[in-house]
Design a protein that fits this description.
The protein is of the alpha/beta class. The protein has 8 helices and 13 strands. The longest helix is centred in the last third of the chain and has 15 residues. It is globular and about 60 Å long.
């Protein structure tokens, strides 16, 4: 399989996504004046939108590339959960793995945005206590059941309660047992949860926090990736560095991937696109560096779109390949 053939081979690969599903709620309007009550803009409502967020946005990215996707996560017993399930269904994403916890609300991020895509305010509805007891057991049971049909497993950790030590361990163990890749989009406080992962994809701030190393140059990024890999106990590390591209280190060596962004509109969800694309590529049998290259191309496209967005297979065709050392 050549790198050029890879995008077309993503369709039909089954990915199990374990993590913090969210609903992104956008209230959109125009701003004509400042409030006389306080120095804040008055937004005149025009319309509202809902989008899949968090691990649900990761799932949406994988589905948009032709993957068969199942999600395991927590929702509340509320209207937001109904909207989230409906949106997942419209995106052809399986939601049977969602566990309802009546003691918490579905995570929802309400953004007030102008018609010029300027964010005025954000309100977060969330309860982020780590899953335990019957809820944690239900999550693990769903992972064990749904992993049986998966070609890859992806852990999307947003520190909203789903990814406990036992849940992460169950996802990694299920992947290892089946001999399939397991990728993790990490959060620093949970770094000890991810031992045994195939690939972890920290951004450069997360890599700095875990390694206590400054990252300003390619050489510093590579050194941090080596230390991160040792600290986390994983096989490979891909550090995403925004406009500076990506740094990859794995069992076969290292690679520097220059950024491919043409025009940056919004970096929201770019990390979701990276890990969804890379997971599908590995599930399709790609090498680590070809999977990272494709994920880098996808990130360069998605930052040109507003809000949590997706890319398609047709979006990914026809880009140049970056320099590599691996």
């Amino acid at each position: 399989m050549t790198a050029a053939d890879l995008p077309a081979r993503l369709a039909g690969r089954t990915v199990l996504i374990v993590g913090d599903v969210m609903l992104d709620h956008f209230v959109i309007g125009r701003v004509d004046r400042i409030s006389p009550e306080a120095p804040v803009p008055v937004v005149c409502f025009e319309h509202e939108e809902y989008r899949l967020g968090g691990a649900a946005n990761v799932a949406h990215n994988a589905a948009a590339l032709g993957g068969r996707v199942e999600v395991v996560g927590i929702v509340g017993k509320d209207a937001a959960a109904e909207t989230l399930r409906a949106d997942l269904a419209r995106a052809s994403i399986g939601s049977s793995g969602l566990v309802t916890d009546s003691t918490r609300c579905t995570t929802r991020k309400l953004r007030v945005v102008t018609t010029r895509n300027q964010q005025v305010a954000r309100v977060d509805y969330e309860q982020d206590a780590e899953a335990s007891g019957d809820i944690e057991a239900a999550l693990i049971a769903q992972i064990e059941q749904l992993a049986a049909a998966a070609d890859a497993i992806l852990v999307s950790d947003y520190l909203k309660g789903v990814v406990s030590r036992r849940v992460a361990g169950a996802a990694i163990a299920a992947a290892r047992q089946r001999g399939i890749p397991v990728l993790v989009d990490p959060k620093v406080p949970h770094i000890d949860y991810y031992a045994g992962a195939t690939v972890i994809t920290p951004n450069h701030h997360e890599a700095e926090a875990v390694t206590h190393m400054r990252i300003r140059t390619a050489a510093e990024a590579l050194a941090a990736a080596v230390r991160f890999k040792e600290r986390a106990g994983c096989d490979s590390v891909l550090i995403t560095r925004g406009e500076h591209g990506m740094t990859l280190i794995g069992p076969d060596g290292e690679a520097e991937l220059p950024a491919e962004a043409r025009e940056v509109s919004d970096v929201t969800g770019a990390g979701d696109t990276v890990i969804a694309t890379m997971t599908l590529a590995l599930a399709a049998g790609a090498s680590l560096v070809d999977a990272a290259r494709l994920a880098n191309r996808a990130a360069g496209i998605v930052v040109g779109k507003f809000g949590p967005a997706t890319v398609s297979v047709s979006d990914l065709s026809g880009s140049e390949s970056p320099r590599q050392a691996m």
